[in-house]
Amino acid sequence: MAKLSFPRGESFANEMAAKHVETQAKLDTEAEVVAAVIRNIAGPHGTLASRVSVESGDVDRFPGITDPDIGAIEFGTLDPDAKQVKGLHVLQRAANAFGSSGTG
After folding, report:
1. Of 1, 43, 54, 59, which residue has the fewest beta carbons closer than 10 angstroms?
2. pLDDT for 48-78, tens place per residue?
3. Distance of CA 9 to CAs 1, 48, 71, 93, 94, Å?
4. Pairwise CA distance, residues 10 & 55, whole Å
């Protein structure tokens, strides 16, 4: 088996591949697909679907819900009477829709 050698180092090659225009386009597409699944799951829960967005990092995309109470929305909380309100697990359910190996 041939071994690849990168004159500037493997990390440089990884960075170049991650920032390649086709890689970035694929990340955009995949993130929007995940966001659409989140919106679909969140749809029955009032305005929650309208708070779904995709944030961009250096090379990654982060689909999620932009809400300061996302922890309470996802995992549950206590209501004013100290009764447990179940979480919706919207993000977990969307992630599970793609399995543990990702969308690709």
Report:
1. 1
2. 998 999 999 888 899 989 888 888 889 999 9
3. 20, 45, 40, 39, 36
4. 27
